[in-house]
Design a protein that fits this description.
Shape: globular
Largest sheet: 5 strands, parallel
Order of helices and strands: EHEHEHEHEHEEEEHHHEE
Helix content: 25-40%
Structural class: alpha/beta
Radius of gyration: 18 Å
CATH class of the largest domain: Alpha Beta
Number of domains: 2
Distance between the termini: 46 Å
Number of strands: 11
């Protein structure tokens, strides 16, 4: 059974999301501020967080950043259509996805299932039992760890999925659509922009100089690839 935390300062939204998710059999937790969400995640075995951006005491962006200091569980932001900049900021600090209000129940369920599926199965397939290595990057799929030049790097599930996909086929160019569908495990319908944000955040973690990447490179008009560390 998965434990899902729903955090929004509006009680009716929390209740609506509970109605959508309850039939899935999840154990549901609720919070109404970012501070409450942070406290629950720190003490309970939460597997996924639905987190509103605009909240009192501690907003969703700050809560996401603080959760990422100790946990890589999937975080889906709950946003208004007008919060475009906040969506990007949220992805930059470690959120995995976002859902725009007003909610469509089938979309909520699809995104929650997708993130939980990735979180539960990430690295569990036996196709590549040995560690992947590209230049100074080593990805141990059994231990679900990544090191760069011997230093451990903490990645979110989406960042890990993107890196693993590219490292399995070094030099191969993947379009944003192909990356989204492989990592998010759902059809890309206007959501490919999230890939660029995660790529940028991934570069900040694995590159010495993200503006001049050695490993994770863009092929303009085509997509992204990983190479062995040449400048």
């Amino acid at each position: 059974m998965y434990n899902v935390l729903i955090c929004d300062d509006q009680v009716d939204i929390v209740n609506a999301l509970k109605i959508y998710l309850a039939p899935e059999g999840y154990r549901l937790y609720e919070a109404f501020t970012g501070a409450q969400a942070l406290e629950i995640v720190s003490r309970e075995p939460i597997h996924l967080v639905l987190l509103d951006i605009m909240m009192p005491e501690m907003d969703g962006i700050t809560a996401t950043a603080k959760i990422r200091e100790f946990s890589n569980i999937p975080i889906i932001l709950l946003t208004a259509k007008s919060e475009t900049e906040d969506k990007v900021l949220g992805l930059n600090v470690g959120a995995d996805d976002y859902i725009t209000k007003p909610f469509i129940p089938v979309e909520v369920l699809a995104r929650v299932r997708s993130q939980l599926r990735r979180y539960a199965t990430l690295g569990s397939r036996p196709e590549n039992p040995e560690a992947l290595s590209v230049g100074g990057i080593i990805l141990n799929d059994n231990a679900k760890t990544v090191t760069v030049e011997g230093e451990p790097v903490s990645l979110t599930p989406m960042e890990y999925g993107i890196l693993k996909l590219l490292m399995e086929h070094p030099g191969k160019v993947y379009s944003t659509k192909a990356i989204y569908e492989a990592v998010w495990q759902e059809t890309a319908i206007g959501s490919e922009g999230a890939v660029a944000v995660h790529i940028r955040h991934l570069r900040e973690k694995i590159e010495i100089n993200p503006s001049e990447p050695r490993y994770l490179k863009v092929v303009w008009g085509q997509g992204y690839k990983i190479e062995g560390g040449s400048l």
